[in-house]
Automatic annotation (TrEMBL):
It comes from Laetiporus sulphureus 93-53. Pfam families: Thioredoxin_4. This is Thioredoxin-like fold domain-containing protein. CDD domains: DsbA_family. Residues 11-115 form the Thioredoxin-like fold domain.
């Protein structure tokens, strides 16, 4: 599948030129997305990486899936995109940390926080995961631009990710496309056995 060049760090497993593509739509504040993110890290990255059974055959693109019924979803996804821009090589480290600390950004814990306070918490995670100097760039990217309603420097990337989800009729996370087609049978509970069986059937080159 196509990917806007500025978002190339969202290829989180496999080689960028692999012929098959898994688009995995995840929301940082969705518990099932966290299960899937950890599966990407522990199962898919080894299978698709150097020496893995499907090395050079499949790549995984993490597609940010903003779910507006979670009030902080926009803020955490902006943060993920800022991390991808500020420190591309450390994006997955930041993303995985954010998934595994998602409860800090659930509805009730953030219900009394202002947007600036939520972003300050995210900046602390960035400092821990992508480094102090990169976190300065990260914070700058999440600072409001001139104009009362101009967004931040990653707003255009956020719009791209949302438009991509909408044109593919993706409504919830996690959702998965295989070579552009929706896969209704894939579950967040899948482990190495299920994924290996899936790839054995689907990988054609």
């Amino acid at each position: 599948m196509a990917l806007q060049p500025t978002l190339s760090p969202l290829i989180v497993a496999g080689r960028p030129n692999a012929p098959h593509t898994l688009d995995i739509f995840l929301d940082y504040v969705c518990p099932y997305s966290t299960k899937t993110a950890n599966t990407i890290d522990k199962v898919l990255r080894p299978l698709l990486g150097p020496g893995g059974k499907y090395d050079g055959k499949v790549k995984v693109i993490f597609r940010p899936q903003v779910q507006p019924w979670h009030a902080s979803s926009t803020f955490v996804h902006e943060a993920g995109l800022a991390a991808a821009c500020a420190a591309p090589e450390k994006f997955w480290t930041f993303a995985l940390t954010l998934f595994n600390r998602q409860e800090e950004f659930f509805d009730i814990p953030t219900s009394t926080l202002t947007p600036l306070q939520i972003r300050a918490k995210l900046a602390e995670i960035a400092k821990e995961t992508i480094g102090a100097s990169n976190s300065v760039v990260f914070t700058d990217l999440l600072t409001h631009k001139s104009g009362a309603n101009g967004g931040v420097d990653v707003t255009d990337d956020l719009k791209y990710t949302i438009k991509f989800s909408r044109q593919n009729s993706i409504h919830v996370s996690p959702s998965v496309l295989w070579d552009g087609l929706y896969q209704s049978d894939i579950s967040s509970s899948w482990g190495e056995k299920e994924w290996t069986e899936f790839f054995d059937k689907k990988v054609l080159v």
